[in-house]
Amino acid sequence: MSFITANFAPIMFIGLICFLILGFPVAFSLGAAGMFFGLLGVWLDIFPTAILSVLPLRLIGIMANETLLAVPFFTLMGLILERSGMAEDLLETVGQVFGPLRGGVALAVVLVGAMLAATTGVVAASVISMGLISMPIMLRYGYSRSLASGVIAASGTLAQVIPPSLVLIVLSDQMGKSVGDMYKGAFIPGFMLMGLYILFIVALAVFKPKMVPALPPEARAFREPNGHSGYRSLALLALLSVIVGVVLGKNMEAVHTWWQGEVVSFVPTDERIVVAMCGGTFVAWLIAVINRVTHLGLLSKLAERVTFVLIPPLLLIFLVLGTIFLGVATPTEGGAMGAMGALIMATMRKRLTWSLLRQALDTTTKLASFVMFILVGATVFSMVFQAADGPVWVEHLLTKLPGGEVGFLIFVNVLIFFLAFFLDFFELSFIVVPVLAPIADKMGIDLIWFGVLLAVNMQTSFLHPPFGFALFYLRSVAPEKPYVDHVTGKTMAPVTTMQIYKGAIPFLLLQLTMVAVLIAFPGLVTGNLDKKVKIDMKAVGEQMMEQLNQNEGSDFNSLPEGLHPPGGAGAGAPASAPGAAAPAAVPSDTGQGPVGEEIDPMKAIQDSLGKK
User: Fold this and answer.
1) Where is this protein chiefly located (predicted)?
2) What is the pLDDT of residues 317-368, one digit of tens each?
3) If 0-12 CB within 10 Å is exposed, 13-18 middle and 19+ buried, where does residue 356 land?
């Protein structure tokens, strides 16, 4: 028994692994391990029985957690948008824009994946939608099957990092940080990862063009009556939008100064990007509306189609992320507005039905319940683990790693990478992060940067062969048997599981590259955060003492002992009589020093409060 008592924390951790290996659901494994070792710890007198009485309060605190309320809101928003056909319209339109280029359809998948990530935040919805729509098109026109599979699965996982990501909400809650700050920190890294995907496709188009052919002329749907493609009109409209956005972004300080009525000298980068993007898209939308109403022929069919298809999701992005970044709404309020915006968009498109709404609500309820059960189980386990000084054991284990902070980060990322083979991001967030975050905080690591770093690493859990969830989602919609293409009439070969695994590996390496980039350049995350306001507590104490000294003739008997100003402590004694010299001595028993030593105002305040 002495061995169990001395090694209770590591035995408890091994016990959890045994529960998981036996095949029990993660939520029930966590709860069962926590209760079992909790009762065992009470029996062995490792901690008192009262520790178990805290459990109901912890569970009530989970139910009252307003931050986690954003999870069902964002899930509902994504499911409604996915089922209302927004993904189909985006893929069809963006595919027509980039189709004439080598790798154009793959580029369209990446761009639409990023847009779906910024509007839905649900990996399953993105992968399934793009698999159903773009996979047949890419196979029809000769794309490599492995590349087509990899780009669809990887683009869907962008919903893990690009706000409003569900994993960022969970990580911010577990780390005790603001969801808005976590979103701001992940904004640029998320789109940088999208840029790595695009560079990889462009490199394939240059060096292996047969893997990514362009769409043939007969596959291009939007043509002008004179036979032109309409790209010139689209390019001019895009150029005008970019100019407006750049000008607005560079003058954000002036705009804020005019709006707030006071000088603003700093505007965060993420806020510049969101507002500039919305300003540019609004100008494009306004021109398209004028063109449609007046029939002036200012825009081509392609330009008008692109504008009216892209503007609604971009508007929803501003509604959700813009209000959060600008501080107008909390993430929970932003999620609620996003869900309402998705309902309005689906209604305007005449695609909102009772069946669609019921399916979306049913799936949202299942996911929210799944998250809640895992959180309850993780709370039971972590409460007992902390009572047994488990965090201290983990801290001693990790702080002894060679390399200091860098060694700790490398070990943690390798650990998360391998655990992601078997656990999804919810489980990793609730089991591993509460143990690692306090250690990172003690080592001086910024927790927002640490959270974004872990989110990018957890993204690999969706692409790990053979357990990646994105690969399972794609496998469920990719053709398993030969089929006849309804456009060409040709018999198409199926997509094998090994081809899906092979296609995921290059994008998995790109994700790991992004992890290394974030470790090397933390400013990519922390540079987007609001500047911290430092408070000089000593100056505050000195200011308090100055204000007390200015109250001549006040009754200082009501002050705490040790805060009587020099020169008198009796009833009605002035702080310093005019013309009288203040005594140098501070005769008191507060421990601030011998007679004749100058008083430290902050120490006097702390000593007096300590006595109280």
Assistant:
1) membrane
2) 777 777 777 777 788 888 888 888 888 888 887 888 888 888 888 888 888 8
3) middle
- For every residue of 388-436, DSSP letters joined together read TTHHHHHHHHHHTSTTHHHHHHHHHHHHHHHHTTTS-HHHHHHHTHHHH
What is the Cα–Cα distance from 164 to 104, expressed in whole angstroms?
27
> What is the DSSP annotation of 64-117?
T-SGGGHHHHHHHHHHHHHHTTHHHHHHHHHHHHHTTSTTHHHHHHHHHHHHHH
What are the structure tokens assigned to 485, written together? 């293409």
Residues in the chain: 612
CA-nearest of 475, 472, 468, 605 to 544 is: 605
CB atoms within 10 A of CB 564: 21
For residue 162, the number of C-alpha atoms closer than 13 Å in the C-beta half-sphere is 29
| Other beta carbons within 10 Å of 269 | 15
Residue 581: pLDDT band (50, 70, 90) is: very low
Reply yes or no: is the peptide bond before residue 216 cis, omega within 30 of 0. Answer: no
**Can you say whether the dihedral through the CA atoms of 401, 403, 407, 408 is positive or negative?**
positive
Q: What is the three-class DSSP state of 440? A: helix
Nearest to 54 by CA among 354, 465, 294, 380: 380
Q: Give the separation between CA 412 and CA 443, rounded to whole angstroms.
A: 13
CB 381, CB 8: distance < 8 Å: no
Percent of the chain scoring above 90 in pLDDT = 6
What's the token pair of residue 281?
């898209």
DSSP state of 48: -
Judging by DSSP bridges, how do beta strands 483-484 and 491-492 pair with one another? antiparallel
pTM of the model: 0.74
Task: Indicate the Cα dihedral angle 230, 113, 271, 323, nearest 10°.
Answer: 110
3 state SS of 508: helix
Q: What tokens appear for 234 in the block?
A: 């689209």
Q: For residue 487, what are its two tokens?
A: 């456009």
Nearest-angstrom CA–CA distance, 68 and 66: 6
